[in-house]
Each structure stands twice: as C-alpha cells, then as structure tokens.
Amino acid sequence: MVIPLTIQFLPAKTKTHTISLEAKKYGYSPSRIIVNQGDIILFKPGSLDATHGFLLDGHPLEFIMRKGATFLKYTWEDDDGSLQSDWDRVPDVEFTADKAGKFTFRCTQTCGNLHPFMTGELIVRPNNSYYLFISLSIWLVFGLLLYMQSDTGAGFSGFNRINLLEKLPWLAKIFKLRSFQFLVILPNFIIFYLFIISSLRGSPVGNRNITIIFVWILWWFVLKAIIVPIGGRIWCMVCPLPAPAEWLSRRSLTGVRYVEKKFKALHHRFTGLQKDWPKITDNIWLQNILFLSLISFGIILITRPIATAFMFLGILAVSLVMALVYRRRIFCQYLCPVGGFLGTYSMASMTELRAVDLDICKKHREKSCFSGGPDGWACPWKQYLGTMNRNNYCGLCTECIKSCPKDNVAIFIRPFGSDHLLKGYDEMFNVIIMLVVAIAFSITMGGPWAVIKDAANVTESREIVPFFIYLASLWGSALLLFPGIFALVARLANRMAGNRVSNRTMTLRLAYIMVPVGIFAWIAFSLPMLMVNYSYILNVLSDPLGLGWNLFGTAHYPYKPFLPDWIPLIQGLILLAGLYFGISRGYLAIKDIVSNSISRTKAMIFPSIFALLIINILLKLYMG
Ligand code: SF4
Ligand code: SF4
Fold it and tell me: Model confidence over 347-383: pLDDT tens digits?
C-alpha cells in the first residue's frame, strides 16, 4: 500500500500525449487512457462505424465522432447571461488533464443496443482517492477485528425490534382488509401489461423504450437499493407476475374460499391438480440455475425490449401452469429467478413479519396461518409462524395477519442484517452467484472493455467462441472458483476457532458475510446506472413507445449524467459500508457457535480478508 502511494506522489514531468481515439460499437480504443495531472492530450478521434459521442465526466469536454469528421461542442454566454452551445468541425481535440482521479467518458449518441454501456476511462494520476479507499478498507478490517477481540458480548447488536403494527394500528387495519393485496397489485398489473405492449410494439432500441428504462434502470435500482434492504420481499407483495395464476388457482380476486373439512392439511380447495411440490426439489437449486441461465443472456435481456417481453410472457405462462398443477405459490418459491435473491437478500432487510408470541402459536391447535382460516388463505409460501425465524420464504402477502384468530402476527422494524442463518448449500450458492454476477455486470456493463461486451452480446456480435468463453468464466466463477475459495476460507476459519463445529456449519454461517457485501455491491453497481441514464427516464416518459410523442415536454431532455465525477467516490463509500456490514454481521452469525471472543475474532480473520478482497476487486473496477 505504501509503495503505490509513494509512487503516486512522485513529481512527474508534464507531457503531451497524441492519442488516436477510435470509436466502434460499443467501446473506444484505447479503452483506458492513463496520464499524469497536468498532461496534455491531443485526441485524434475517428469512428469506425456509426456516429458516436464522447462526453467526459466532470469536464466540459464533449465531441461527436463520425466517419472522417469530428465535431467539438463549444459554449458561450449570451448577452443576457444564458449559456449557448454549438458544434465546430475540428481535426483534433486538445485537452489538459488538470483534475486528478478516474473519469469515465461516455457515448452520447444512441448508436445501438448497448449504447448506454459504451464507455472508456481516463485515469489522471495521482489517483489519490482510489488509494485512499484501499487504505480505508484495510483499516476498516483492522478496526473491526480489534473491536471484536474486545467485545464483551453486545457488539454490533443494534436496537431492539419495533412492532410497527402496535405503533401504527391503522396499518394493521389496512393489512387486514381482504382487498389489500389485490389493490396494491392492481396498479402494477396494469403497468405490467402496458410494459409488455410497449416491449412488443415500441422502439426496439433499449434506451428509447419505456420498459427497458423503467424495468432495468429504475426498478432494478429501487429494488436493490431501497426495497430489499428496507422491506425485504415486499416486492413479492405487489408483484404482478404471479397474480393471474394465484387468482385463477383461488378462483377469487379478494375473498377467501374456506372449507370446514381440511383437504390435504388446508382449509381450501384450489383449481387444478392441487399437488404438493416434491420434497427433493424443496430448495432453491432450480432458482439458482435459472437465474444463472437468465443472467448469461443478461446484457441482451436488458437492452432488447423484445427479449424482456418474452421473459415476462414466459414467467406468466410458467406461473399459470404451475398454479394449475401445484398448490400455493410454487413458482415464486422455487422457480422465479428474481425470487431467489429476494429471499436470501431479504435476510438482511430491516423489516420482518413474525409471530408476536411463540407460546401462543404453540398452544394454538388450528395453526390458521399455515392451514388457512375463514378470514385468510393458508400461507401461500408454506410458512408456519410458530417456527418461521427468517425472511427467506415469507412473501409478505399479509394473509397470516388476516387469518390468525389470535392477532398474533406483526411486522417489525429491526437492525439491518438480523437473520444470520443460511440453512443449506443451495442458499450459500445463491449468495455467491449474486455476488459473482454483480462483479460480472460491473465488468461487462460498467467496464470499458468492448471485447467483453461483444462476447456477452452474442446475438449482435455473432461471436460464438468468445460467448462460450464468457459463459464458462461466469459459470465457472459462480459455481467453482468463488465457492472453492470460500470453502477454503471457511475451513481455515474453523481451524482458527479450534474446530468446535463441523466445517459445513462454519461455512454456512460465514457465508452470511456475502449477503450484505452482495447487497452493497449491487447498490454500487446500479446507482451509477441511474445517475448516468436518468435523462432517458424523462425521455421515455414523454415518448414511451419511441414513436416521436412528447407528452410531458421531456422527450428531448438532453443526455446529462447527474454528478458523474462523484460516482467513483459514492461507489467507494457504498462498498465500505458493505464491507462493514458484511464482516460485522458475519461475526454475529458465528456468535452462538464460537462463544469465546478471542476464538471468534481468530475465526473472522480469513473471512474478513476474503470480504476485503471482494471489495477491493470492486474498488479497482470502480475507482482504479
Ligand atoms: S394462526 Fe396465529 S397463533 Fe396460530 S400458529 Fe399461526 S400465527 Fe400462531
Ligand atoms: S408468512 Fe404470512 S405474510 Fe408471509 S407469505 Fe406466509 S401468509 Fe404471507
């Protein structure tokens, strides 16, 4: 750490760099430009295919690159003080790198499907903020380990949970309304069908289609950064995708069809075969594989409206078939690719739905939450509140709040990262897959490497071999490399703690570290997507189908990233928060199996280094 820092501060003579900058779908060559502060760059730009743009974060430098011509944007102030701009045809562009740090340059001209991801990087040395964040991450780990060693038992425990329904009785009344879930799903349901229409009939160019922008930029960010960390699976409460299947299966939109005599342990009869999901697949392996399969085509899915439409229609069809064969929300619990990570990540969320008093549950013979009652359907997620101690498989449908005759169900606010127990390797692989995909997306979509984008974008590039190499790297990292390294880390941790528990127990407990780390990695990845592309949200709001409309006067709002030069710094802070929560919650996860604080601290050394490495891979990608 000291050597690179020292090198950074060595005075360097300023130089002039002449750079032939070639733009080609979807990248620049060179993709990374490294200079010293004060150096002059003489760009000789050129495009090899379509019209491309060049906008440098944090600098008033913008030009358009066409085959054989470059147009530089220049601005001036009017007599009345307003800023005017125009374009000047120029042979080359001179620029002085006067600010140190990492700056992304971005294409401003919609040049094709992957246009929003066409970027390059300018690194102006000394890139002090990057080295500062490396040091901070190391010091954070040191500090946490020192704190753990002196922990007398209450470390990282946070505040006591708060019963939200007790504090806000009107909320309980709303949740008890039979029509509650239908009413919260309905607006989403309408929007969802409009999105399907816009995907099929609207512009085929991703950033001109409302579905792509709203689903993959806005919703994805809100889901990862706000909904899951705060509300856990609250998306499942309002999700329109499985709703038609559930309505069909229940033959009701809002009411409960209660039968006095139980049928296969439930007080309801559903449409269809009413089978139960086989025990052998009572895990999330299928979800893991489906998620990885879908994500293998991730860059295609999130940039092609038609692909998104087919994904939605596919989910709709499969959920309908599942509902006609099986009882309850089998699609959500075992197949939905989004549901897998919602489940494991909801373990960290600040909300939980639980029984208020477990003794009441024990004594209540009917167990209406599980088997259903006159006022509420049997839990569609097969949960019994008397033993439910994690968020993973509670879809927050609020049926148990209605069905429980003892009024023994409540929603609580709790500290971030409260459920610590991963119960099987299927869940451990889920958190590893999510983490690997966050890193893979940061490289593929956030990085400047056109060759990787081409490999992932196989339907356009037609490069089959690179695509298979891309797939092999993704699947190999998610299913072999990262799990292998983590298994080794967990074994070492167990040995350091004196091998008091089985390696499996220690591995599953420590794997929890990757839940907060993963959540924050996803936030760090998704936030810039929103900051950079928010202008597309305004554009598609006025012209949702890309048909030249201008409903709210924002169809031509210019492409203007929001505070783009702050992005690396914000990402660095988010990653440090992930490191803190990952290590501190991992420590809590082994508290009851390693009671001695010194042994516990020893056990945390290698997992903390593992988390530090993950965070530093991402710091390198975002800031280095
Ligand atoms: S119905 Fe209510 S009291 Fe009975 S087991 Fe379920 S949550 Fe507990
Ligand atoms: S536990 Fe309650 S809120 Fe959660 S899925 Fe089951 S019935 Fe719905």
Answer: 999 999 999 999 999 999 999 999 999 999 999 999 9
Q: Nearest ligand, CA of residue 361? A: 1
Query: Residue 235's pLDDT is what?
Result: 96
Q: State the chain's mean pLDDT as an integer.
A: 94
Does ligand 1 have an atom closer than 6 angstroms to the CB of 361?
Answer: yes
Report ipTM for this prediction. 0.90
For residues 480 and 405, state if they share a domain: no
Do 240 and 224 reside in the same domain of the chain? yes
What is the torsional sign of CA 346, 352, 357, 363?
A: negative
Residue whose CA lies nearest to ligand 1 atom number 2: 404
For residue 239, the CA-to-ligand 1 centroid distance in Å is: 25
Q: Are residues 384 and 493 in the same domain?
A: no
Going by C-alpha positions, the residue among 115, 73, 76, 111 that lies closest to residue 95 is 73
Q: Which long-range contacts (C-beta less than 8 Å, at least 24 apart) are formed by 276-279?
A: 276/326, 276/327, 277/326, 277/330, 277/333, 277/334
Write the pLDDT tens digit of every residue in 20-36.
999 999 999 999 999 99
Please indicate, yes or no, whether residues 439 and 314 belong to a single structural domain of this protein: no
Binned at pLDDT 50, 70 and 90, residue 337 comes out as: confident
Same domain, 322 and 406: yes
Contact 517, 611 (CB under 8 A): yes
Whole-angstrom Cα distance, residue 134 to residue 526? 21
> Are residues 435 and 405 part of one domain?
no
In this structure, how many other beta carbons lie within 10 angstroms of the beta carbon of residue 225?
19
pLDDT at 402 > cutoff 80:
yes
76 and 36 assigned to the same domain: yes
Report CA(262)–ligand 2 centroid distance (Å). 19
Domain that holds residue 529: 129-158+422-623
* Cα separation, 16 vs 40, whole angstroms: 5
Convert the pLDDT of each residue in 236-245 to its tens digit: 999 999 999 9
Q: Please say which residue of 413, 432, 466 terminates a domain.
A: 413
- On whether the CB atoms of residues 353 and 329 are closer than 8 A, the answer is no
Reported as a pLDDT band with limits 50, 70 and 90, residue 78 is confident
Using the mean position of ligand 1's atoms as its centre, give its distance from the Cα of residue 408 in Å.
6
Atom of ligand 2 at shortest distance to CA of 399?
Answer: 7
Closest of 569, 568, 543 to residue 557, by C-alpha: 543
Q: How many distinct structural domains can be found in the chain?
A: 3
Cα–Cα distance measured from residue 432 to residue 507, given in angstroms and rounded to the nearest whole number? 12
Co-location of 614 and 543 in the same domain: yes
* Whole-number Å distance between alpha carbons of 175 and 402: 7
Q: Compute the distance from residue 368 Cα to the ligand 1 centre, in Å.
A: 6
Cα–Cα distance measured from residue 58 to residue 368, given in angstroms and rounded to the nearest whole number: 59
